[in-house]
Structures are given as C-alpha cells and as structure tokens.
User: Fold this.
Amino acid sequence: MSAVSPSRRAVLAGGGALVIGFSLHRSAVAQDAAAPAELPGDLAKEPLLDAWLRIGGGGDITVFTGKAELGQGLKTALVQLAAEELVVAPEMVRLITADTALTPNEGYTAGSHSMQDSGTAIRNAAAQARRLLVARAAGLLQLPAAKLQAKGGTVVAADGRRLGYGELVGNDLLHVKAAPQSTFIAAKRRRLIGEDVPRIDLPAKVAGGAAFVQDLRLPNMVHGRVVLPPAYSARLRSVDTAAASRLPGVLKIVEDGSRLAVIAETEPQAIRAMATLAASANWDEAPDLPDPANLFETLAALPAETVPVHDGPGDMPSGANVLEARYRRAYQMHGAIGPSCAIGLFDGDALTVWTHSQGVYPLRAALAQLCGLPLAKIRCIHREGAGCYGHNGADDAAADAALLAMALPARPVRVQWMREQEHTWEPYGSAMLVHVRGAVDALQHIVAWDYTVRSSAHATRPGGAGNLMPAWHRARPIAQPAPQPLPLPEGGGDRNAVPLYAIPRLRVMYDFIPAMPLRASALRGLGAYMNIFAIESFVDELAKAAGAGAIDFRLAHLADPRAKAVINTAAARFGWEGFFRAEGHGRGFAFARYKNLAAYLGLAVEVAVDHESGGVRLVRATAAVDAGEAINPDGIKNQIEGGILQAASWTLYESVRFDRSRILSRDWSSYPIMRFSQAPDAVEVHVLDQPGQPFLGTGEAAQGPIAAAIANAIADAVGVRMRDIPITPEQVKAAIGV
Amino acid sequence: MRARWIIAAIVLLPLLAATGYGIAAQYPLIDKLENAPPRSAFSRKLIADGARLAAIGGCHLCHTAPDGADFAGNRPIPTPFGTIYSTNITPAPGSGIGQWSEAAFARAMRAGISRTGRHQFPAFPYPHFARLSDADLHALYAFLMTRRPVETTQLPNRLLFPLNQRWLMTFWNILFFHPASSRRDPRHDAEWNRGAYLVAGLGHCGDCHTPRNLFGAEESGRKFAGGRGEGWTGPALPAAPTPWSTAQLFHYLRHGWDQTHGAAAGPMQAVAAGLGQADPADVRAIAAYLSSREPRTALPRGHSGNAEPAAGNRLGAALFAGACARCHAGGAPMLPPHGIDLRLSTAIAAADPRDAILTVLGGIRQPDGRAGPYMPGFADSFSDRQMAALLSFVRARYGGGPAWRGLASRVRALRQGRGQS
Amino acid sequence: MITLTVNGRTHRLEIEPATPLLYVLRGELGQNGAKFGCGFGECGACTVIVDGEPVFSCLLPAIAAAGRKITTVEGLGTPAKPSPLQAAFIAEQAAQCGYCTAGMITRAQALIDRNPSPSESEIRAWMEPNLCRCGTYLRIIRAVRRLAEAWAKAHPGAPEEASR
Ligand code: FES
Ligand code: FES
Assistant:
C-alpha cells in the first residue's frame, strides 16, 4: 500500500522532529478549541504550524493541505507558495493533500476557496517556519538573525557557516501556534510567486502515471459494480441472483433492499455480472417527476421558503422607465469525463476509502453513520478523479466502495460507475427561475431593482449519510435530510444574487424550494451562474432602454476601482470600440465579482448567429481577471479559459432530459456537450496581478459572465433577447423568425 | 459504373447531334427584375409557409456548402457524371436569384430552365418539382427571396465531356422528362393525397429511392423500388423487416429514428433533420402515403437472435461481443434507438450489405453536436477481414436473408470510396 | 491465448477474445493511460493507436487487436522523459484534471505521425471524437500546433500548411 499512498507511518518515520507532536485526533481537538479568529486563512481552523508543514531530520519538507486537486492546479500553486517562503526548489517540497489521517480538516474543496483558505495558511506557515529556523540558527551560531539567510534548505551565515533545516528543526520547533502576522519573502527576492511554474501533476497525466483514483491498484484488489435503480422512484420488486452468481470470477452478490451490487475478481467479470444481475431485476417505479414540458411552471408552483437576501424597497418609482423580465435555467449536469470511482478496504476493524470526494472529513462522518463505525475507524484519502467542479457521484461511489468493502473484508474493492449511472444519478445543478423588475431614469441611472430568484438546493453534500445515495436504497434506508439554503454571504441559489452596482432602491429575495424534483447539489458556481446571467442580461436590457452603452453604463454604476479595471481592460483588449460587426455577428459584455467577494472578471465576447438554423457560435472571448496576488498566472488563465468553455457549453447546449419517471440523459449522445468543432476560435485572459493583496478565488469566476455575455452578444447580433438557458438553436430561430 | 455512362454518352452524342442543335435554344430569357422584391412584398405567413416547404424540399441541403453561407450554393454534388456545384439561390442580384421574377423562378423549378434560358442539370430535381402547385411555388419564392443575399463566385462543375454540354439536356428532357401535375386520387383522403403530392414532387424521394437508368433518369416503371443516394442505398419504400405504421414513419421522418426501425444513416439523416423543421401535418401526410403503399420488395423478417446460424464464425462472434453487444444485445443501457434490436434493422435485412458496411465503417453521428442517435465508426478498428467476419455474423444471426457474399472485398471497396465523397 | 504487441513488447495472454482492449491494458498489463470514460465510443478517453490509427480501446475486442501494433500513451514517453507531444502538453498546460489528456495525446500523435504540420482546422476536425469537460480544447490545439510549428521551422522547404 505504501506504493500508492504515503501511509502515516511512512510520513512520520522520516521526520524525527514530528513524531511526537502529531496525532490523529489532534486536528479535531484543535477545531473544538476556538482558535484565534485573526489567524490568516485556515490557520484559524488549525493553528499549529506542523499541521501544515513538517521538516524531517534529513531536511525533507512535507506540506499538508486539507484541500484537493480538482484539476485547478492547486498542488502546483501550494508548492510554489511553500517553496517560495522556505527558499527551496519546488522539487524539494512534497505535498500531501486531503487525507483524514494526515492533513488538516479544511472542509470542502469548493467555492473557489482553496487559495484563500489553504494557500494563505500554507504561505504563512512556511514564512513563519522560515523565521523560526533562522532564529534557531542564530541562537546556535551566536549571530544576529539579520546576518543569516535561509536558502536552498539551509540557513547560511555571511561567514559561510551553514545549518540544514533538518538539523535545526529539532523535535518541537514547528509544533507551535501560528502568529497572526508573517514576514513574506520580499518581492525582489521572489523566484516562484507570480511565475508560470509548470504543473507538477502533469508529467504523470501525460505519460500514463498513476494519477487518478481510477488508476490505483492495491494488492489483491477486486472489482465491484453496482446495479442502480432505473428511476429515482424505483424499488426492487424481485431479482434472480442465481445466474449472476454462477458467472466466472464472481465473489459476492449484494442484495440489500433495492441496493444490488456485485464483486468479482476482474473488472470485465464484474461488468458482466452487473449486466446479468440488472437484466434479472424487476422494479416498481412511479411517474413522480415533473412533466418536462411544464418544468418551470411546476417549479414556480412548488412551496418555497423566502429568504430576504437584500431587504429594501421593492417598488418602482413613478416616472422612471420600468422593465421586467423572467429568466430560466434548465437542470444541468457535472458530466465528468471519468465516471465516479472509489476503493474501499475493510480489515475487519478499520475502513480505508480512497475517493475523489471534495470533502474527505465530511465524507468520513457520513460513512461512519452509513457503516456503523466510529469516526476513528475510518480513514478517507483523496485521490484525483475526473474534473467536474462540484458534487457529482464521487461521494456516492465512495459509499458504494465502503459498503462493498464491509461485505468482503480484507480485500480492496474498487468500484467504478458506468457512464449511464453517472449521467442519471449524479446530483445536477438545479433548474432556476428569476423574475426581475428594474427602472432607469433619464440620467441613465438604475434607480430601482426588485429581484427574486427561485430554485431547489444547491448543496446536498454529505454531512450525514442521508445525502449518500446508496443509503436510500438499503433495506434499512436513511432518508435524505431536508435540504437547507446555504447561508450568506456566499449563499447557494442566491449566490451573487445581489448586483454589485450602486442602486438606491434594491430588493433581492430568494425563494428556496425545499423539494427536489430532480436530485440536485453543488455545480460549479452554484446559483452564481444563473444570477449573473440574469443580472448581467438585465443590466444590458436596462442600458438599452436608457440609451447607454454596455460598458459606460456598468462603469457609471460602480465605484470599486478594481471592478472598473477589469471592465476597462477586457473591453480594450477585445477591441470593443472598433468592433466590426460582420453579418450575423455581435459583441456582448458581462462583469461580476464572484460571490461579491472573490475574483473580479470582465468579459467581452463575439458570437455568430446562423439566421437559418438559429445556431449560435461563440467566436472569441476576452477576459480580464483580478484574483488578488497571482501565484501562477497561467494557472489562473487556464481556470478562466476552462470556465469560459465549460459554461459556454452549459449555456448553448446542455439540459438534462427526463420523462415522468426516468432521466433520459444517459450518455453523451443524449446529453451533448461542447466538442472541438464548437470551441471558440480564441480565448484571451488578462490577469491583473495585485501583489500583496489577498488571494481571491478564481475557479468559478467565469461561469456566470460567459452566459450573460453570450446572450448580450446574441441581442447585439440579431436583436433578440434570449432569457432561457440553454439557448438552443430552436429558441433563437423562433425568436428571430423566418 | 462511370465507364457505362461515358459509353452511353458517346453512343448517343452523334445521334443527338444529327437530330439538330437548334432545338436547344428555344427558351427565351426572362427579363430581370430591377430590384429584388422587398420583404414587405410577402406576408409573414407566406414566408413561414415557404420555410416549412423548403425544409421538405431540402433546398438548404444542396444549396449550402460546408462552412458556406446559407443557400449560397457551391456545395459539391457527386453524380455519376462528375461533380456539380450547386448554385446560389439567395436573392443576391449578381450571383444569386435576386433578379429573378416569380415567373423565372417557376420556370426553373418546373422546367429546369434558368432565367437566362439555360438548361439545368437534373441533379436539380426539376422533374419532381414540375408537380408543384402554384401556391407552394409562391411560398417557396417568398421564402427564398427573403433570405440574406450573399454574392459568391460560382465554382465550375467538373463533368466529363461530353456530359458537360448543357444543350444535351434538351434531348434528355425529351426522352425522360414528362412533367405531370399531381392528380388527386379520389379513393384516398386529403392527407394521403397531400402525401402523394409531396413525395412525388417537393420531397423528390424518388431521387434516392427509385432506380435510375443508364442516363440517370428514374425508371418510370419502378417507382420506389430502391435506388442510390450519395453512395448509400435508398431502400425500396416502404420495405423494412417490420411494416411501417404511419405513426412510426412519422416519428422516423421527424426525428431521424424510430424504436422499431432504427436510426437514419447516410444522406437520410439530413433529410430527416430537414423534415424536423417542416409542417408536422405535411410530414404526417408523407408518412400516411408511404406507409399505405404495398411494399414491392418485402424484406425478410430477421432471425430470433438465435446464435445457431452464426455458429462457426468465432471471430465474428467475439468481435460482436466486444464491440457491439453493449448496445445491441439485451439489457443495453442506452436509450432507443441506441442499441436497436438488429433484427429490426433495414440495413441488416437488406440483400445488399452496402448500407450495413457503410454504417459500421463510418458510424452515425448528429451534425452540430445535437442530441440524437449515435454509433461510433469502426473503420480504424477493424481490418477488412475482421469487418467481413463481424458482418457475416450479424447477418446470419439477425438478418433474414441469405448470407452476404464477398464481404471483405466489398468492405475494401467501400472503405476506399468513403474518403472521397 | 491472445498475443498482443503493446509499445513494442509482446504479451501472451490467457483472456477472453471479446474482452475490450481497454480492460486488457488496464487490468492485465497494469497500464493507466487509456481511461474508461463511457464505453460507448463517445468520448475518446480510451483512445490508443492501433497500426497508426486512433481507436477507441473500449470497443476494440482483444482478438481484433491481436497481431497489430498497439501504442498507448505509455509508449510515447515517460513522466521523466516525455515525448515531444507530451512535453508540449505540459508546456501549454493543455490539461486541467487531465482525465481526457492521455486520449487526447494518443489521438493527436496519430495525426502528427501522418502529417507533422497540421493546420488548426485539421487539428480540430481530427480531434472531434474526443471530449474534455474542463474546457482545454484550445490549449490542446496550441500544444499540437507547437509541434507543427517546430516541424515547419526545421523543414523550411516543406509545403507550409495554412494555419487556420
Ligand atoms: S471510453 Fe471509449 S470512447 Fe469513451
Ligand atoms: S482536462 Fe479534465 S476532462 Fe479534459
């Protein structure tokens, strides 16, 4: 096992200094004792330096993060930070990511928080560790600290004497609480921060290294497959397990209520047994899904809790030019390219699960409840999966692996979902409705804004086992707990529901629908995608009504210079002013600050609309982003560029199909996403670096703006306002007419 | 194939020349319009009707080049005589039909004579369009004259001499063009009659589904007995292993697939995509008419999926199990018509393996990334011999008729031809 | 007994002839490059090169691969010594999660092998069968173009491909 995972023993064996200080339960204890809130980033949750950073007797450096690599380049950025502040080469830093036995509990890797929370903690921890190392060297060498420099893993004196970090660290140097302030490496001495350091995870990924949870091969490993019910409502009526159990290689058939699964020696054997079992299963199902033809009417009619997001006067002043609009968004899926996968190993006493869940600690708690084991007997280790940015089937597959491992102790059980299982059972991004009224005056000012967004939950991640789908199907099921709206300021369906523009009369309401007609949870950006789409579309509508230009109108309602800077930069680099409007082409703009507290993004796009088919093509996009201090600019660009392409795909192509009982989007032909031929000609991202400023989450910053920019560009191209996502050719054609 | 045409032409040429050149010039030029009629000259409804009719006629299909502007022509149309480039039918005054009066348009559609009096080649299906009613022509004219005008440079056709001689069309027309307007058949209802009119006329279904003679003309006595389109079989209408009901055919024509007959492949995919935009009542009429016809060539109903006839073909069985079974065997997780039961497949039931080979080689995918039937192509996965083993297995197990012969060489030939069109 | 030649090495395997090559590579040979994405030939995550052609290994029965030259992403280079194309993917950061990447590289390699300097539109058309959820298409095109440009520079006499 040590080949695939650095076991705790292996990590600890290397560092004489650290064995004493660290214990499995300490993180939890530290969390309970209210940590001083003023500590930066997640140091506030976990203040001990050696929870983040350990140096072995041989000088080897290990950095710990509770966050997970999702393809956002997190590992590289964190190594950059640690290596910079410790003044070592990045290759000298070993990084351990989310693992309940080893790393701090940083909750979920979500909401574009990783750099803010973990990056900040690690940078401060590394800077403070450097200070401590230098101070101890100063003591040993009897020199003032100012005469010493940390460099390449040693502390060097002017007279040439040097001491290695390993010699200095002793057994308690870093086992101290962090201080609120750190001294970072001075800007002129920086080698890594702000540089496009190549991604440390890519060499393995381009050359067939074991990079993903799907690639883990444990000794004696066997393969599990699940048979999932054909519909949410389906309950197993009967099954004949005999044929499947006779197939070669089959080790176990699990029948537990409506939960069916197989374990076999090899993967093809497991798949064949799964198919045989599925063919022999009979289900009862009910037509309990909404009529897809009236989905939005159904959502509008469902009971909702109203959450005031920004309470203000909602009435429109008389005499102003009042506009009203409704925007809608279909259910959309994460659709990771690799179906969810996990490996479970139960040794008869303790359970280990390798998972691509975005939250190993919350998953551990849920598994404890699901499997009836104490927390201390479960270890969840993050391994990368296929990217999707959100709560997909990862946690459910982990639960499958855990249950199968419990059913076949002593052998690691690898479970991977089939494509159609991922498509039909993952929790989607909720369908949403927005109703907005706004007014502009003769001076081209927005004078009033009354906005209501309505949706189901945007977060049903495991907290308890009831959010793990396999729990619903067992003979003794655990029902899904009532979903809750996420609290502000980040919010769920109301994320980014408050416009950043200065509007004197402003009211924003969130109608939270506790019911979930289709299973829903966190999809990249949560409600921000829809809210920014609606807000930035409606701002264009108001600008048009006021006779103002899209750029000037936005600037006139903003005071924050950083907001203005991204708008001006994006417009200038796009060539907004001199734009040549070819037949059927148009330009569109959008701006948002993600969650109103993370990265700023200005975005201009050009689209082409085919008059005959109504097909829309994103031709090019130019973005300017301010993510605070940029650790790895190319990493930020990649995030924004990828976000633009992914959300353009949502906006133009994607909606989950279903009938009255089943999900019909079961593969890529029934749920098409953007392919090469539809990718834009060019996407340019300009990073406005803010040295010394806090890191601002970037990972989800582009999702909403791209949707609005596309709709605004369509309006510019062919004069029709598209308010429903996805913006299908049929809708556009119907709007532009023959 | 091509050689036959050339011989035919060479034999005929002196004969025709002797008959006299003069007849060719009998069509006058029709005066050009000063300005194309403005959009306001037509009602919205008329334009919309025209759009729905154009979708049945497939105007967009032939008159739009890949990556070209809508209706601006220059799409290469492969014919046995060489490649013809379609013309610009946008209302561009120079290269399009912007200067065409409705009379000129009607003559082109019905007689194959352009505004300037030149013959058109019957790759443009005027022998079918001759049946169009005045009302439908009027709507089509309104639709085309309100498209975006785009000036283009017409690409020259690449036809073999002497087949590039337009005046020859005079004789072709004399021999094979017998315009008839559709007459109502009182034994059938209005829907059926509308269907018959659309199938014979605007839909020009015979283009692909009726066999052609040596001169590229549809054989009048063998209407819908099965033809050829863009290298694919146009199966006999309405032959299939299971009879078509009107509802099934309607669904197939509107969506490009039907649960009991499978997915459209080859050129039929685009035809169905067009019919998806047509007036549903018209498509239902087409379905009603076609499904009422007695199949000329009944296709044998496939086997019961019994492995026995395929026994001995171990290679074919293994290839099917590894490459096809996840979708085409029982318990396939995919939606209809993915994984259609191959006993229902027209291509597998057909006497000629051509469409089956082409489908396995190239697969089925939707244009523009739309949702719909999908099958990957296996051209790069299997050798000719493997492809032959797979197809003979499928034929024996799921097809009803006698074994296909010479599969490997058919595969080789079609594989080579595939890259060209 | 089926004999497979993968990355120049011959393996004699006791496997069902119908087993898709993907499972043979991952299960029997312990390779990681080819990935399971859909098993329907819809995403290209499982792409390997067989006799020079990019093939979906999820739908290639082992028997059909026997006796043919199979190249996987492992056969192009190693994490320590990446091939030129693999190096170009790293240099352009042509990946986010990287799940699609091995399939992208194998498909692109088959193109480079037949046309060392493909244009952007040729790359797009060629790569169409492969899906990426993270939105890295443009970077993948850049990575392939990087090689194409390097080739064109090294072969100044060769006919210049139109870039787009
Ligand atoms: S896994 Fe083979 S194409 Fe998707
Ligand atoms: S990089 Fe994640 S799927 Fe392509």
